Structure formats: C-alpha cells, structure tokens
Amino acid sequence: MLRTVLIAGLSVLALSACAKKTLPPGGEGICWHVGQTKDGELKYNKLATGVADLEHCAAALETMRLKFLRMGGTNREVTGAFKGNFIFIQRNGIFTAPSMESHRYPALVRTGDGRLAIPSAMPQRPAGQ
Question: How many helices (H) and strands (E) would you count in the chain?
Fold first, then answer.
C-alpha cells in the first residue's frame, strides 16, 4: 500500500514539474521583443512585421540590442519570439526554444570577430587542439 502511494505521489510531482509551459505569441511574420514587468510578468512588444524567418527576427533583435548598448544600456541579453518559438540573444550566440522552460538550442553562434553564423558553418577543431 505504501509503495503504491509513494509511486502515485512521485508521478504527480513529475507531471506537475512538466506542466508549466510559458508559450510565446504566434502571428505570421511578426517578430516580438519579450520584456518583463516589475511583477515578473512577460510583456510582448511587436518589433517588426513581415519578417521572413527566425534568422531575420534574430537579426532585428540583435540590432535592437546593439542600439540600446550604444545609447548606454547595460542589458547584454535580449529575449524575443517568432512563430511560436522564443529567441534568446546571448553573449555566445542566439538560441531558440518552444517555451521559456524548455531546453535552448543554438540557432546562430558568434564567430571570433563577433559576427553570427549558422553552427554547421563554423569549422570544427580536431580533438586535442
């Protein structure tokens, strides 16, 4: 009996951990900037419309980030959304995920000179170098 209750309890905990998924807004060709309010709620600001793909939305977010830095801003990371995916502009590249809680996958990586490139376009170093 105790074993059954324990297994049921652990199952409920495992399912509840997976339950919360913060999904991004949709919209055909809409690139969103995602900010946070003082209460911690997400706020979606329309950055651009008629955007062709995730890479172009990421470029618009990167441009916005660089403009803010030039104006004296300190935020080096920016979050956005495009067609049901979150976009995370970070120091080492641009990552994407289907929800805020999901694992982030690389979409673009930074080259040695700071440009962005598709991960498979970067040369691979042989092991031990």
Answer: 2, 7
| pTM, 2 dp | 0.74
Check the CA dihedral 65-71-76-77 and report its sign: negative
Q: What is the DSSP string of 94-117?
A: EEEESSTTSPPEEEEEE-TTS-EE
User: Among residues 118, 101, 100, which one has the least CA distance to residue 109?
Assistant: 118
User: Which residue bears the tokens 């919209």?
Assistant: 27
33-54 pLDDT, tens per residue?
999 999 989 999 999 999 999 9
Q: Angle 103-109-113 (CA atoms, 0-180°, nearest 5)?
A: 150
Q: How far is CA 80 from CA 20, 67, 77, 119, 122, in A?
A: 19, 16, 10, 20, 24
Q: Are 98 and 84 in contact (CB under 8 A)?
A: yes
